[in-house]
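Quick one: structure for this chain?
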Amino acid sequence: MLLECGFVKGDKSTMKRIICVEDDEDLREAYELTFQRAGYECRTVENGIELGCLIVEFEPSVLVLDMNMPELDGLSTLKRLAVSKRLRNTRCLVVSGFVSPEAARFLKSHGIPFLEKPVDFSVMIEIVNELFTEPPPFARQAKAS
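Got it. Here's what it folds into:
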């Protein structure tokens, strides 16, 4: 099961790890190549269900997430992440063509950045780099409560 999810054993502390959740295969490939060229270890999955298979084992620093996906959408995925004690330290960036008003309120309330598609890859890398200087969104929430 772990090999099916793309898990690779290694020192997780030596590299910044990213999972990109995107239902468009061409974008998944472009994201993976872009992040790898920028020095990140990157894995991609098609939806929130596949993410559940990989996130605990791969332990990403950042999650790049589309909002409109089959199976389990981005907002539902973020809500699950928010209540997970083990995963609440994951930083998030939403990259999507459309965000519902409910999702926009959620992103704003948690300080999660949003990029609209089509995305400028250099801007995406810049935002992800900045995420490492910020506390994770759901960790901020846990400290406030």
